[in-house]
Amino acid sequence: MPYYRRVGEVPPKRHTQFRQPDGSLFAEELMGQEGFSSDSSLLYHRHRPTAIVSAVPFDPPAWSRVPNRPLKPRHLQTGKIAGDKTDAVLGRQHLLANDDVRISYVEATEPSPLYRNAVGDECLYVSAGAVTLESTFGVLELTEGDYAIIPTSVIHRLVPKDGPVKLLAIEATGHIGPPRRYLSVRGQFLEHAPYCERDLRGPSAPILAEGYDISVLVQHRRGWTEHIYANHPFDVVGWDGCLYPWAFSIHDFEPITGRVHQPPPVHQTFEGPNFVICSFVPRKVDYHPLAIPVPYNHHNVDSDEVLFYTGGNYEARRGSGIEQGSISLHPSGFTHGPQPGAVERAIGVEAFDELAVMVDTFRPLDLCEPALAIEDTGYAWTWSRKG
Description:
By secondary structure, the chain is mainly beta. 3% of the residues lie in helices and 40% in strands.
């Protein structure tokens, strides 16, 4: 993270005696990235965070993936996913994946189990509803339009509020953060960045939960394990540092516009290992007198492009069957662009009212079983229709 936070009680000097009211020592836990050579935070527990009483293999819901073959654009209709009671971790419907990232969708109604992803960071996008993210760092409230970045190995759970919550989940095999070109050498957001520290939210006061024999599901690089902790891991009285879950609202993203159509990198919001995440938000569009506001036909020769349409009207896709909740995949090896008729309709338009999350991956994405079950199989041929 680009800036330091301090929450709850911490001693004046790190790695020194910090005693509880009964005279016993609080237990320090240093969470650090890249062998403690990058961002870290120091947490103070009432009980030992190392104390587990059981570890057994855990089998999550099974899933598989197949290549995008024959190669073609895909349209996935998330509205067709069955609305069974489920949680935001084990209920994820995996849609697209490669060895760098997995993209899933879930409509959660139940609290999730306590969970830690020891493979990489997660980015959650709330497309509808509200959810409470509880973690060892405290509480983070999320609502429609919020992104949440959850660092690797943070124990947390997701609790829907006042009804179902719809989430897009992007699971990395490394770390997710702001694009490096937005940050100074010391990690401060620069003036040209489309958002800054004032737009970010971190966890509030510690939860201070008590309990014994607490189950935590761990997704790790060799599968899943269920750990039973001797004490509740949410027993942290305070922490400080630059590594913690944080939230950013897509509604606070300040769009960058120009006289002629701007390419997708101006919409970039986060970067991960071999992928980027972009935000398309309502904005004024191109103001050259001869401008064509919708995208030109384009072929990203190095990447697969995924768009999750989450609000407004996506003018370039009108007539294709795309609607709110749709996910499109435009793979490398295919030239894509606006639907027939969209170019002429866009001339003279001054603003677009659209909301979408884009994930560009630099290795090809495979299709997971749930994606095949909700595919609009006619999408690939929609550019052949007359506008």
